[in-house]
Design a protein that fits this description.
globular; Haloalkane_dehalogenase; 2 domains; 8 strands; 331 residues; hydrolase; eight-stranded mixed sheet; Rossmann fold; Epox_hydrolase-like
Length: 331
Amino acid sequence: MHPDIQKNLKVKPAHIISFIVFLLVSMSTLTAQVYAADAVWPSKTAYKYANVNGKKIFYREAGIQHKQTIVLLHGYPSSSHSYRELIPLLSGRYHVIAPDYLGSGYSERPNPETQKYTFELLAQYVEGLLTTLKVKRYSLYIQDFGAPVGFRMLLNNPNKLDALIVQNGNAYLEGLTLPRQAFFKAANEDSSKAQQDKIYSFTSKQAIINNQYLRDVQSNPEVMSPDSWTHDLHFLQTKADRVIQVQLLQDYYNNLLDYPKWQAYLRKYQPPTLIVWGKNDPAFIAEGAKAYLKDIPNAELHLLDSGHFSVEEKPVEIAKYIVDFMNKLAQ
């Protein structure tokens, strides 16, 4: 500062330095406060049971209940455990519920000799859980088995949906190769012992690890947590546990027959839809993701460099797509 100006203003250099330091500290504090206010911290996940139609249904819940609810529906042979990494990424912004189906995970598992397991049955119990929790509207994340469960819920209650998030969940024949379609048809119609044994073998330890979780990540197996199959196999220890999943695999062909109903729902209601599909999935192929655009042309489609269990491989990427998608809906 020029000496004459300094003399006229009667400001000492030490005062100027102190003032600059004050400004810097104040700006730093303000910036920290803004970041703290904007930060989205995950909510602690709670692990709960609810009585639904006389059965104990387990579910994971996180986030503030008055906010938008996202219901995460798991696939085969898993449970809500498959969403353990995704839930914290969403729970700071949304109310998140991830149930274990009747017969899966920590939920009650009635004996399959007296209770036949179908996707309609699973849908009834998930819908019953949401009714018990007084959740009136929700967005659905559907993957694998979650698609037939979710679409049955939508057909039963077509006006409850806010948005649909599809991750390797089929609603079109294009998503299944001809051999895969033939397998489900044979599983449903062929009651021979040889066919039963073949389906039962799909629930074995080797099949779960190698043909499910590690199948699509052979070039990078480290991305797949062993917790995933260890958890699933814990709930497939008995013959009854495995028969439950066999019955669902046998019922799966009925989903293919119901695809036209699901597609009609999409055409009629045009739900806001996000599709995040692992393109390396040889079971539920990427053509199944693209097929959705025939009925909901405004759907947002992203093909990920991942496989059937994309939420195990890329939970952060999927969460980013979900947050961006949900933000657009809120505008």
